[in-house]
Write a structure and sequence with these properties.
By secondary structure, the protein is mainly alpha-helical. 73% of the residues lie in helices and 0% in strands. The chain has helices at 3-29, 36-57, 72-95, 113-145, 150-164, 166-175, 182-189. The longest helix has 33 residues, at 113-145. It is globular, with a radius of gyration of 19 Å.
Length: 190
């Protein structure tokens, strides 16, 4: 193996490790930022821009990020199909009275329809979905593919994605009093 290839592989491994750690640390601490809820969408959009810059600096292209034009039609079809299934499941759950309690969430119990609409139409798509898709399925997975097999890159990005959700899931459990003890919360997180 020549020194340039070794150096490139080493820098890719360092990038993947640093990005993985940074994503987990960010998810675990971002709520500590003053006025976090107000800054959520701008912080996420800035994160997408930063990740794009870092990916570019690492020599990644649109294909590495799964954003090449040739896959957009297929991606749009899959996305539309999955969204349609989610809407059907949501409408079914709303229509069946026994399933309505599944939507109870103390974190949104006292907010009005305007804030619910903002969260559903802006905060979640731009602040959550865009960032997570780009970070995990784009940059982290793409960087992993430069050094590992498809399966290994998928396992790593999935593992980091799971760790990314530990603190938000813990907050959900606590806010909705879904687990009384620390041990039961840990069991539900696993």
């Amino acid at each position: 193996m020549d020194s340039h290839l070794r150096s490139s592989t080493s820098s890719n491994r360092t990038f993947v490790a640093a990005l993985s750690g940074a994503l987990v640390i960010y998810s675990s601490t971002v709520h500590l930022i003053p006025r976090f809820n107000v800054l959520y969408v701008p912080l996420s959009l800035a994160g997408v821009a930063l990740l794009g810059f870092l990916a570019w600096r690492m020599g990644m292209d649109l294909e590495d990020l799964a954003l090449e034009r040739s896959t957009q039609r297929n991606g749009l079809a899959w996305g539309t199909g999955v969204a349609a299934l989610a809407v059907v499941a949501l409408l079914f759950s709303i229509a069946v009275p026994g399933l309505r309690p599944l939507f109870d969430d103390a974190r949104i119990a006292d907010i009005g329809p305007g804030l619910v609409a903002y969260r559903a139409l802006i905060r979640i798509p731009l602040g959550t979905a865009l960032f997570e898709e780009f970070a995990f399925r784009g940059v982290l997975f793409g960087a992993g593919l430069k050094i590992w097999t498809l399966q290994r890159a998928a396992v790593l990005s999935s593992l980091v994605f799971g760790l990314w959700h530990v603190r938000p899931t813990h907050d959900l459990l606590v806010a909705n009093d879904l687990a009384e003890s620390t041990l039961s919360r840990i069991a539900l997180l696993l």
